[in-house]
What does this fold into?
Amino acid sequence: QVQLVESGGGLVQPGGSLRLSCVASGFTFRLYGMSWYRQAPGKEREMVASVTDTGGSVIYADSVKGRFTISRDDAKNMVYLQMNSLKPEDTAVYFCNRPKGAYWGQGTQVTVSS
It folds into this structure.
């Protein structure tokens, strides 16, 4: 059974940084690309970052380009999202998943507020 467990969220001030972590199990992690998504109240879930299975290519939403960095560690079955220069509009629950993945974990709450 696929399991995705996100962690690292919290309350930070605008301009601050957080590093989110996701540990995956139930599939051969190294064979899949991985993505980070977020969902804010009243908004659609959106993809914010994606990395290929090899780690060779990354894609970011325009809203986070230059501020967020996605990376993966296949030896640990983990994917990370380094978030810098955080803005209030980054406030959301953040999830990791395979592209088109059917199972969603609990997510981790990121709140950016002064």
Q: What stands out?
A: The chain is about 0% helix and 45% strand. The mean pLDDT is 97.
